[in-house]
Structure formats: structure tokens, C-alpha cells
Amino acid sequence: MIYYELKVESDEGEIVIDKEKMITSAEVMFDTINNDTKTKSNAILARMTICGNITNGKDTSVNEQAIKLSEWARDLKNDTTYRNVTLTVKTDEYTILRIYEIPDMFVCDYKESFKSSDVNDAYTFELKLTQSENKLKEIKTYQ
């Protein structure tokens, strides 16, 4: 089993998603904008996609964090749109596989899906983030 922790920081506070099984998948991608490029380009974006469950049994704090993600997705103020994001991926509860610290990320897309309650993972979210341009050198990656 993989464990994930997501922390989104701004001057207005934090969004922390660290409940077991709330995040179901995470993807970090360094995307060359023009795939037809013939030489290494500076036109590279850091992107992150986080998918997860909105509910975790009777724990209402999970839903509260999803609401905060939704609010961030709709935030248009320059001073709070860009936030520092830390994603921690663990192979078990204590063993860290990777930590990504990516400053100045913003929400490209946020989606919530609600299916019939008899379906596993009936209430889910998908968060797509992109880093502000020209910030690649500020990304930190740890094992």
C-alpha cells in the first residue's frame, strides 16, 4: 500500500491531507510544453495531479479539506492563488519514497464526482496543479 500526504501552504493557512486512503493516486510531471522541440528548452512546466476520496468514514475533517481545495480552485486573488505544495509518498506508514516541494503552484482543474453510495470510492476529487513559470529551479526533491 502507498501512503500520501499533501500540504498546501499560503499566508492564509494550510490545507493538509494526510488521512489514510484519502489520496488514492499522485502524479508529478515535468512537461515540455512544445513536444516538437529539437533541443532542450526552458519551456517546461511542473505539473501535479492528485486523486482521492472526499469521505473517510465518519471523519468529517476529510470533507473539510476537500472543501478547502475547492475554495482554492476558485480563488482569484494574486496573493493566495499561488501556493507552496509538498507531496510526500511513502511505501508504508514510515518509509518515505519521495518528497516533492514545489513552490508557486496554482489550480488548473478541480473536479468532484459523486456516484451511487453503493459503489466503492463513491465520492472522489481530482486536483490538477501547475507551477508558475520560471520557478523550476526552486523545486526540491528528497528521498
For the structure shown, list the relevant keywords.
143 residues; mainly beta; Pnp Oxidase, Chain A; 2 helices; 8 strands
Number of helices: 2
What's the total number of strands? Answer: 8
Strand pairing plus helix content: what structural class? mainly beta
Give Rg in angstroms. 16 Å
Total tally of structural domains: 1
Biggest sheet record: 8 strands, antiparallel
**Estimated share of beta-strand residues:** over 45%
Helix content: 10-25%
User: What is the residue-mean pLDDT, rounded to a whole number?
Assistant: 89
* Element order: H for helix, E for strand: EEEEHHEEEE
**Low-confidence parts, pLDDT < 50 over ≥5 residues?**
none
Quick one: CATH class? Mainly Beta
CATH fold name: Pnp Oxidase, Chain A
CATH architecture: Roll
Describe the structure.
- The protein is built from two helices and eight strands; from the N terminus they run E-E-E-E-H-H-E-E-E-E.
- The chain is mainly β.
- It has a single domain, classed as Pnp Oxidase, Chain A, CATH 2.30.110.
- Strands 1, 2, 3, 4, 5, 6, 7 and 8 form an eight-stranded antiparallel sheet that branches.
- It is globular, with a radius of gyration of 16 Å.
- The mean pLDDT is 89.
